[in-house]
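queue> holo job accepted (adenosine-5'-diphosphate)
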Amino acid sequence: MPSETTLVEVSRRPALGIDPRILWGIGLALLIAPLFMAESYRLFQLTLAGIYAIAILGLNIITGYNGQISLGHGAFYAVGAYVAAIMMDKLGLPYWTTLPSAAVICGLVGYGIGFPALRLGGLYLALTTFSLAVAVPQILKYKGIEDWTGGVQGVLVFKPDPPFGLPISADQYLYLLTVVLALGVFLLVRNLMASRIGRAIMAIRDHGLAAEAMGMDAAKLKTSTFAVSAGITGLAGALSAIAIEFVSPDSFQVSLSITLFVGMVVGGVASIIGPVFGGLFVVFVPNLAEEVSKAAPGVIYGIILIVFLFVLPGGVAGLLRRLATWLKRQS
Amino acid sequence: MSGSPAALLEVRDIVIRFGGVTAVGGVSFDVGQHQICGLIGPNGAGKTSLFNCISGFYRPSEGQISLEGQQISDLPRHRMMGLGIGRTFQNLALFRSMTVRQNVLAGAHSQGRAGFLASALRLPSSTREAAAAEDQARALLALLDLEQFAEVPVAGLPFGWQKRVELARALISRPKLLLLDEPAGGLNHSEVDALADLFHDIRRTFQLSILLVEHHMNLVMRVSDKVVALNFGKKIADGTPDEVRATPEVISAYLGEQAHAA
Ligand SMILES: Nc1ncnc2c1ncn2[C@@H]1O[C@H](COP(=O)(O)OP(=O)(O)O)[C@@H](O)[C@H]1O
Ligand SMILES: [Mg+2]
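queue> job finished
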């Protein structure tokens, strides 16, 4: 059928003018290599970067693609993490059941918040989510729910053993789990953004009235997009609780939301691959800053960030895009 | 039933007020099946207000609008495309970050059903639907000579071509009624001439009706089967181009405007 061949051509247009299979091969090798090379702390950091990448991808869907600013996605990360910790520690459920549960619960919370906030328009979503990010650590400390949340102490959990007697360490397994989940989520989001729904999500950002004239129910689509975005970030939060083996209110301060936002901008706003670089940035650059100056790592981090965005205004994804156009022009 | 039996769109006693200003003061007219109807009038006559009412962007303060007998004036505006009313904008309203092809595909939204899950999982139902939309987009890009720009970001195109993209975007959902607000605005003479032929082609190919809002008379008189003239929010003429051109009120409204501009 002629229609299907075109569809394939459109979705598999070779990036960088290179056979996509080669790019996939290189990508997979890069993902598997750390299993054999990295010492366990580095591997743990890479696991964290992968988890942040998923969380940042979630944020990018609503803020990058849909143009609705969220300053409080750390709140969904926190809720996801607590859902996982409570399910494992208090309810004795296996770790893998917590991942879909966290995604669904955060999606529902996102829907509930997005429904009014997105209809009010303007910067309401930014302010509402910011308030949420401020409130969540305090709510988690609240005495009335201490039996569940562990109050200021938080909740301890244990990382899972590798399944099927795989001859790898728990850290290696967590890394693999994160990579597989991230690949799955990234693929689904890529499909979504290339679809009718993805086009509508971007159309609403570009011109809300014209989008409605095209038959797009903007209010409904924005709310659903926010729910999906919150669900994905919540999933990342659950994974972080499993990887870090501990949740406490202090791990989810407002700064976490800002970290996710920075990761999104650094990786590239409205990009699928960008959040991977955003995740690596927010995990490794603070470390680097600490190595440069023990006294004022925040200053160093700030300087690196500013220089980075000055050199790469479109984030890493923007650089890749420019590189791809340049390579295409060469060939 | 009032109006001719073949009427597609029936506009009845529409009043549109903005605060104290009455932009449209009780206007009625019909647009027939496969008819090209021109809506003319000097600046401030109420054309855009009426247009926005028909396209669902404003609620009329009074009166009714129906399409094929179905009341539409109280429906939300995102329902219009699905009911068969496509539109363009007086000032361009394209999706600027997208390519020409993506803009045209966006127009097919109301024809699709696939939701978040089906799209993310690429279920057969969603890929089939997407392939059909791709086919239609390709055909429209060809019809409007936009093929060579298909993968170009729309914001980089010259104005006249962007207007064509808007037209393609409105046509892909195969509307029964196409609403065009000042399509000739900002175009040069030869582009306006091409537009007249294009409208006749479009009507023939898509078997639709067109409601054409224009400030300038020439294009309207050339392409329209019927013309409705407004002045100060009231209908001052309704008939064939020749009849309307000969109506004293129309002549004085336009002469008055020319005197004003001079
Ligand atoms: N959104 C609005 N708010 C207030 N007054 C408006 C608005 N839109 C139009 N008007 C007024 O209604 C009248 C008709 O305007 P409009 O429909 O734009 O006319 P046209 O398109 O024929 O030039 C004008 O007097 C205009 O000032
Ligand atoms: Mg106007």
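queue> The first helix of chain A runs from residue 2 to 11.
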